[in-house]
Amino acid sequence: MRGFFIGRTLADLGGALRSGEETAQGLLARALESVDPDLNAFVTLDPQGAEAAAKQADRELASGIDRGPLHGIPVAVKDIIDVGGLPTGMGSAHFDGHVAEKDAECVTMLRDAGAVIVGKTGTQEFAFGATGDVSVTGPVRNPRDRERMPGGSSSGSAAAVAAGTVPLAIGTDTGGSVRIPAAFCGIAGFKPAYGAIPAGGVFPLSRSLDHVGLLAGSAADCRTAYRALTGPAGAVPSPADDGAPHARVAWIEPPAADPEVTRTVRALFPDAPAERLDFAGLRQVFLAIQFSEAYDVHAERVAEAPGRYQPVTLKRLEESARMPGWRLVRALRERERFAREIAELLDRYDYLAMPTMPITAPRIGDTQAAQGPLTALLVSLTFPWNVLGLPALSVPAGTAGGLPVGAQLIARRGAESVLFDAAGRLAGPARSRPA
Fold first, then answer.
1. pLDDT tens-digit profile of 401-427?
2. How many Cβ atoms from other residues are within 10 Å of residue 209's Cβ?
3. Cα–Cα distance measured from residue 253 to residue 262, given in angstroms and rounded to the nearest whole number
């Protein structure tokens, strides 16, 4: 099934809405018609609520009220983010039957921008994992190869965009959960700087690492949506963004990556000097913070109803419980040191480039790859930018073995325009089209 929104940009859709060629109600109908149950991307659809929002969007445009580039656009929302009146299940039996009382802050921002919320998308249980196939609602499937995982934890949001069901979706990213599925599904995923899109009404995994992010067919659409949601703050170019066609970029050498993946991405930055990061040291910081904060959220549930977790999630929480307090204290100190080191690196370069993922999408149910256990491997190149709270963008970079590969671009806070401009200059990558 070919989704209607494949190859249609937000600018194209907005132009069609404003010319009268399309209506918000018509776009919603196309979205609902193209939902593929076999992908399991959606856990809840809201045709009645979405229809009311689409009718309002059409009435407003007809009367001269234009809320901007998301006005009338169908959008999907990850199922750890509250949408008032709809279930928020977190992919867990713990929240079976739970209905959100009000919208999360980012959903309010979407509505204020005129977006039409189509429904809720599948997530790894409590967003605690990167495969996208561990949930009480079952695995989400990758539109590029339905036997392969889409990546997680924003698995359903990525699959819905990659399949062309919606042009834009909202996800969350604690260690890579927007960028990982974007890379595996062949679309763009943007994790803004920490706090740029508020996380109120989002069920927490690790409060100091959690980011709300965007998934779309292209970096240009991520940019459009980000500016629409954040207003002037999202539109202000950084001092480094002077419109020059050749921004300074450094290549970050990835550890333990598939050579074909590395070659594919490196070919986009042939002249970039290579730099190295202390990934092992950063990983210790990440794990100490994530495990400590995650167990703080779940301690009572683990004690009172451990059997309601998926086994993989429970195992990770039990491991989290064993994290000693001194490790967290040290990690917080080390995070400050790493932040200074990366700031110095970004004083010399406008942005950094590297693969988003060290491998292509594994098969559903896999737990090992040639490079090591999947649990650690899937976040191995994305987690540093959550620890440091920096904006990071994954864009399609070609294929390896016939499967999508993503390029990850990282900049200092406030230099988001540098990332989007750089993505626009990359030659060759185009939006992936699922079979």
1. 999 999 999 999 999 999 999 999 984
2. 20
3. 9
Burial class (CB in 10 A: 0-12, 13-18, 19+), 207: middle
Q: How far is CA 343 from the centre of its chain?
A: 24
Select which of 34, 92, 153, 157 is catalytic.
153
What's the token pair of residue 253? 């050498």
Flag whether pLDDT at 241 surpasses 60.
Answer: no
State both tokens at 1. 């099934």
Please report the pLDDT score of residue 238 as a whole number. 41
CA distances from 123 to 90, 154, 157 (A): 7, 5, 8
Q: Is residue 231's pLDDT more than 90?
A: no
From the list 177, 206, 218, 417, the catalytic residue is 177
Q: 368-403, pLDDT tens digit by residue?
A: 998 889 999 999 999 999 999 999 999 999 999 999
Three state DSSP letters for 314-338: HHHHHHHHCCCHHHHHHHHHHHHHH
Longest dimension (CA), the chain: 62
CA distance 328 to 330: 5
- Counted residue by residue, the chain has a size of 435
Kindly state the tokens that stand for 175.
């260690």
Q: What is the DSSP string of 88-157?
A: --TTSGGGTT-B-SS--HHHHHHHHTT-EEEEEE--SGGG--SSS--STT----BTTBTTB---SSSHHH
What is residue 290's predicted lDDT score, i.e. its pLDDT? 98
Tokens, residue 125:
């249980």
Beta strand extents in 178-321 (DSSP E only): 188-191, 211-216, 249-252, 274-275
Mean pLDDT of 300-313: 98
> Mean of the per-residue pLDDT values for the chain?
94
Catalytic entry in 78, 120, 157, 432:
78
Active-site annotation holds for 177: yes
What b/e readout covers 215-245, taking b as 16+ CB neighbours within 10 angstroms? bbbbbbbbbbbbbbbbeeebeeebebbeeee
Task: Let me know if 157 is a catalytic residue.
Answer: no
Residue 372: the pLDDT is 87
Find residue 250's DSSP bridge partners.
352
Q: Is 315 a catalytic site residue?
A: no
Q: Are 13 and 73 in contact (CB under 8 A)?
A: yes
Average pLDDT over residues 163-184: 98
